[in-house]
Automatic annotation (TrEMBL):
The lineage of its organism: Bacteria, Bacillati, Actinomycetota, Actinomycetes, Propionibacteriales. It is an enzyme of class 2 (transferase). The keyword Translocase does not apply. One of its GO terms (molecular function) is methyltransferase activity. Residues 43-137 form the Methyltransferase type domain. This is Class I SAM-dependent methyltransferase. Keywords: Methyltransferase, Transferase.
Length: 261
């Protein structure tokens, strides 16, 4: 994981057409439950700070934590005084109990292959948020490697071994790197994410698919410069976001939860 992120690729990941869809849909979903500014928001595992910066622009006080020193430095370089950032682990957050109004957990579950570690990260989010505050939890869909990586990105053309990995990935959820210093992660079935939220003493309020069905890269690129076509894509993602049979089609899942009473 560290070898992958130390390459610095994450800073611009949400800038391309595929990342733009993920970002626009994610902020749309967050805004359904975000408390009004200037509330305090914890962005745990927030990477180089794209969401932290967006929140700061809206007037929120942001507590950003990430495992990677590089990501902390990239965010510090943006010079936003309402963002307090430091290196931190989602399983052991250095914030007091009930000290923030909402928590973003938009990356840590991607990189915790052990279930007990994922539960610990979820419990920590529940510990630091005030009663009734929303916790937003992102996960990679179990079928993202096949639908996004193979059908959309055609990763097998440069990495033929990727096709051989798919059955194991879909059985175990464990996604190994397919190239040196490549992405390594964990992928969720929707039902497994629901169970983990419950086992962390959180109450699930919503679970949606973020992007909808992955499209070919060329299609995505043509749509981002055509507002009407882009709106059709967004509307499709909204229309199917809670359809149980289609949840796993989205590359990313986003759960909203609160501490159990």
């Amino acid at each position: 994981m560290r070898a992958y992120y130390e390459q610095g690729k994450e800073r611009d990941r949400l800038a391309g057409s595929k990342g733009a869809l993920e970002f626009q849909r994610t902020i749309e979903i967050l805004q359904r439950r975000m408390p009004p500014a200037p509330a305090a928001i914890a962005d745990i595992g927030g990477g180089p700070g794209r969401y932290a910066f967006w929140l700061a622009e809206l007037g929120y006080a942001v507590h950003h934590r990430d495992l990677m020193q590089l990501h902390v430095e990239q965010l510090q370089a943006l010079g936003r005084p309402t963002i307090q950032t430091a290196v931190g682990d989602a399983r052991h957050v250095d914030l007091p109990d009930s000290s923030v109004d909402a928590v973003l957990l938009l990356g840590p579950l991607y990189h915790l292959p052990e279930r007990e570690d994922r539960i610990e990260a979820l419990k920590e989010a529940g510990r630091i948020v005030r009663a009734g505050g929303p916790i937003f939890i992102a996960a990679i869909s179990r079928w993202a490697p096949r639908l996004d990586g193979v059908l959309q990105e055609r990763l097998y053309e440069q990495n033929p071994d990727f096709l051989q990995l798919l059955p194991q990935v879909e059985r175990t959820g464990q996604l190994p790197p397919v190239v040196p210093n490549g992405f390594v992660g964990y992928t969720h079935r929707p039902g497994d994410l629901v169970e983990e939220v419950s086992d962390a003493d959180l109450q699930l309020d919503d679970l949606v698919g973020v992007e909808g069905l992955p499209l070919a890269a060329t299609d995505m690129q043509s749509r981002i410069v055509d507002q009407a076509a882009w709106n059709v894509l967004l509307d499709a993602a909204r229309a199917i976001e809670r359809v149980p049979e289609l949840l796993g089609l989205s590359p990313h899942l986003l759960a909203t939860a609160t501490p159990a009473p």
